[in-house]
Amino acid sequence: MTEHSSRPGGAAETPDAGVHVAIIMDGNGRWAQARGRRREWGHRRGAESVRSVVRAAPDLGVGTLTLYAFSSDNWSRPAAEVGLLMRLLERYMRREAAELRDNGVRLRVVGRRDRLDARIVDAIAEAEATTESGDRLDLRIAVDYSSRHALLQAVREAASREGLAADRPDLAAELGRVMHADGPSRDVDLLIRTGGEKRLSDFLLWECAYAEMLFTPVMWPDFSGEHLASALQDFATRDRRFGNVQLAG
Length: 249
Ligand code: IPE
Ligand code: IPE
Ligand code: MG
What we know:
By secondary structure, the chain is of the alpha/beta class. Helix content is 39%, strand content 16%. It has one domain (19-235): Undecaprenyl pyrophosphate synthetase. The chain has helices spanning 28-33, 39-56, 79-102, 118-130, 147-160, 168-176, 225-236; strands at residues 19-24, 62-71, 105-110, 137-145, 190-193, 212-215. Magnesium ion is lined by residues 26, 195.
């Protein structure tokens, strides 16, 4: 990395860490409504898609998988829907941790915890502890996540450190920490959004600086490990230049 690089923690510095895929899991509600069911049904089925994708990821060369499960703006939804999403989240933490551990998956939840119910915070902490030694896949689930909030927190923290502001590489590393507290977050290689919308909705604004984007009309409950495999095939054909020019030969 040159001193001019804007990439404090990218895939290029961690070639053995596998591809970082981030997914905006969108379309649950519309999927259910199109079938004459309540939005909640879509969220339940969406949890199945999570299982399918997580099972498939390690063998597809994915080293880090970041899933957007609940945005900070999702608190504005009806209380019943928020309640169900939180229950599904807790259930996932409690029921899946052992299988994740057995499959070598390390689970971590990113985002704010100060607004989550204590029992959910406990379930998260337990699942993180259970899966701590996983070394085949880093699974990060974003809950009460806002990229702007994470960036602001990182800037505040960096600014409060004496002497840091003047030292650009350190500041960049600090900002690169935006997603979690125990090390620099990796740049996203491939960002997938299901459900047909083409926007980021406050997800990983920093980490997606050079992400390849893939927007698919497939609704999240219909998305599976096979869709992830074809997304990665598409990704493999992309020509990533990172601001440089294509060198001959
Ligand atoms: C994504 O599906 C899940 C969450 C945002 C929690 P949506 O619930 O946004 O489904 P649509 O986009 O309304 O269909
Ligand atoms: C983004 O989806 C958040 C998650 C998938 C968790 P939204 O459905 O909340 O995003 P908007 O409102 O369409 O931008
Ligand atoms: Mg949506």
